[in-house]
């Protein structure tokens, strides 16, 4: 059984409306915006409504609009851990792509960045300064907000290790500063996952004062290692399933003989069995069916239900 993490249903009416201007801001809400171009799988139908605010005021106005209209809100970072239904999503999708600012504080060694900042970009910026702490993040193609919510991690490092706090906005307009303890971090998850509170900014504790070329070399090592062991040449969401431990999800999938298994345009990667690739023509449903098949095969053989790490949003046929 795959968890559907958004229970909103799509209205029959697929009408395209003129953009709606949010009063007092430079922000517009558009209707029927394709999410395929906003997610790394490159599949999925449209958002009924979509907005990408550039300021806190615009963000608050967007939440207020959704509240007044009585529509659900879905939060979107770089879309690198999402499988969106071919039928799209009802309600308002709030994208963080323009919520960007970066501040390196040399006195405290802290890096504060907006929700929409790219995590790999921050890893390179830190390395160029000789600041250690983010080398592990260089191959994770998400945003600050997505990393905080997912507790993104790699190469034995993760967001929880370096997060000082995250600034979070609730749909009602309440701003909270949450510590890692309050975020209840566990493996690839936090208390914010699946909720409607939006991370607007996060502060990370790094270690300044190292030799730049050394930090750059370590960052580059991680980058090269990933490029050789993981298939970055086709659209995917990275690892599809959480590692059940002590063996990896990829080990079970490979042992089940599922490498190369394909439905439509969706294929279990040959290079890394925990990746499902969009070989060019995949639909979200193709990917979903591959996920289900993998789960069924692994469960039949080991009585183990692999749990998706990818967030599955919208309606899928069972
Ligand atoms: C090629 C590839 C390799 C990858 N490798 C790794 C890896 O090594 N380690 C790893 O951990 N992950 C990996 N991932 C998965 C993904 O990059 C991470 O989970 C990433 O942290 C997701 O960030 P995002 O901005 O894309 O979030 P999205 O995919 O947009 O969203 C993920 C979840 O976070 C929520 N969210 C996003 N932004 C916010 C916000 N500002 N406030 C509140 N909620 C928000 C969304 O609603 C959703 O529930 C990989 C993905 C790809 C495509």
UniProtKB/TrEMBL annotation:
<keyword id="KW-0131">Cell cycle</keyword>
<dbReference type="GO" id="GO:0008762">
    <property type="term" value="F:UDP-N-acetylmuramate dehydrogenase activity"/>
</dbReference>
<dbReference type="GO" id="GO:0008360">
    <property type="term" value="P:regulation of cell shape"/>
</dbReference>
<dbReference type="GO" id="GO:0071555">
    <property type="term" value="P:cell wall organization"/>
</dbReference>
<feature type="active site">
    <location>
        <position position="188"/>
    </location>
</feature>
<keyword id="KW-0560">Oxidoreductase</keyword>
<dbReference type="GO" id="GO:0009252">
    <property type="term" value="P:peptidoglycan biosynthetic process"/>
</dbReference>
<dbReference type="InterPro" id="IPR011601">
    <property type="entry name" value="MurB_C"/>
</dbReference>
<dbReference type="Pfam" id="PF01565">
    <property type="entry name" value="FAD_binding_4"/>
</dbReference>
<dbReference type="GO" id="GO:0005829">
    <property type="term" value="C:cytosol"/>
</dbReference>
<dbReference type="GO" id="GO:0071949">
    <property type="term" value="F:FAD binding"/>
</dbReference>
<keyword id="KW-0573">Peptidoglycan synthesis</keyword>
<keyword id="KW-0133">Cell shape</keyword>
<keyword id="KW-0961">Cell wall biogenesis/degradation</keyword>
<keyword id="KW-0521">NADP</keyword>
<comment type="similarity">
    <text>Belongs to the MurB family.</text>
</comment>
<dbReference type="InterPro" id="IPR036318">
    <property type="entry name" value="FAD-bd_PCMH-like_sf"/>
</dbReference>
<keyword id="KW-0274">FAD</keyword>
<dbReference type="InterPro" id="IPR003170">
    <property type="entry name" value="MurB"/>
</dbReference>
<comment type="pathway">
    <text>Cell wall biogenesis; peptidoglycan biosynthesis.</text>
</comment>
<dbReference type="InterPro" id="IPR016166">
    <property type="entry name" value="FAD-bd_PCMH"/>
</dbReference>
<keyword id="KW-0132">Cell division</keyword>
<dbReference type="Pfam" id="PF02873">
    <property type="entry name" value="MurB_C"/>
</dbReference>
<keyword id="KW-0963">Cytoplasm</keyword>
<dbReference type="InterPro" id="IPR016167">
    <property type="entry name" value="FAD-bd_PCMH_sub1"/>
</dbReference>
<dbReference type="InterPro" id="IPR006094">
    <property type="entry name" value="Oxid_FAD_bind_N"/>
</dbReference>
<dbReference type="InterPro" id="IPR016169">
    <property type="entry name" value="FAD-bd_PCMH_sub2"/>
</dbReference>
<dbReference type="InterPro" id="IPR036635">
    <property type="entry name" value="MurB_C_sf"/>
</dbReference>
<protein>
    <recommendedName>
        <fullName>UDP-N-acetylenolpyruvoylglucosamine reductase</fullName>
        <ecNumber>1.3.1.98</ecNumber>
    </recommendedName>
</protein>
<feature type="active site">
    <location>
        <position position="309"/>
    </location>
</feature>
<comment type="function">
    <text>Cell wall formation.</text>
</comment>
<keyword id="KW-0285">Flavoprotein</keyword>
<dbReference type="GO" id="GO:0051301">
    <property type="term" value="P:cell division"/>
</dbReference>
<feature type="active site" description="Proton donor">
    <location>
        <position position="239"/>
    </location>
</feature>
<feature type="domain" description="FAD-binding PCMH-type">
    <location>
        <begin position="42"/>
        <end position="209"/>
    </location>
</feature>
């Amino acid at each position: 059984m795959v968890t559907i993490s958004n229970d909103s249903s799509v209205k029959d009416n697929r009408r395209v409306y003129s953009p709606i201007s949010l009063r007092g801001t430079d922000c517009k809400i558009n209707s029927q915006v394709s999410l395929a171009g906003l997610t790394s799988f490159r599949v999925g139908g449209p958002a009924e409504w979509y907005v990408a605010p550039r300021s806190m005021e615009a963000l608050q106005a967007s939440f207020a609009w959704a509240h007044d209209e009585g529509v659900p809100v879905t939060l979107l970072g770089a879309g690198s851990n999402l499988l969106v239904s071919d039928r799209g999503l009802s309600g308002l999708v709030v994208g963080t792509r323009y919520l960007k600012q970066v501040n390196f504080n040399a006195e405290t060694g802290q890096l504060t960045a907006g929700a929409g900042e790219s995590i790999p970009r921050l890893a390179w910026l830190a390395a160029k300064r000789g600041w250690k702490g983010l080398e592990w993040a260089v191959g994770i193609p998400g945003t600050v907000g997505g990393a905080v919510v997912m507790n993104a991690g790699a190469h034995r490092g993760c967001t929880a290790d370096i997060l000082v706090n995250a600034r979070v906005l609730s749909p009602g307009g309440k701003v909270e500063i949450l510590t890692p303890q309050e975020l209840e971090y566990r493996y690839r998850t936090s208390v914010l996952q699946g909720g409607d509170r939006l991370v607007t900014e996060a502060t990370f504790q790094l270690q300044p004062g190292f030799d730049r070329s050394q930090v750059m070399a370590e960052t580059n090592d991680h980058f090269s290692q990933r490029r050789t062991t993981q298939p970055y040449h086709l659209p995917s969401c990275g690892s599809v399933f959480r590692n059940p431990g002590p063996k990896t999800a990829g080990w079970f999938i490979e042992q089940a003989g599922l490498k190369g298994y394909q439905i439509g345009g969706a294929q279990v990667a040959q290079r890394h069995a925990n990746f499902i690739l969009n070989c060019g023509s995949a639909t979200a449903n193709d990917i979903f069916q591959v996920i289900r098949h993998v789960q069924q095969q692994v469960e039949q053989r080991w009585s183990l239900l692999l749990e998706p790490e990818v967030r599955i949003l919208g309606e899928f046929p069972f």
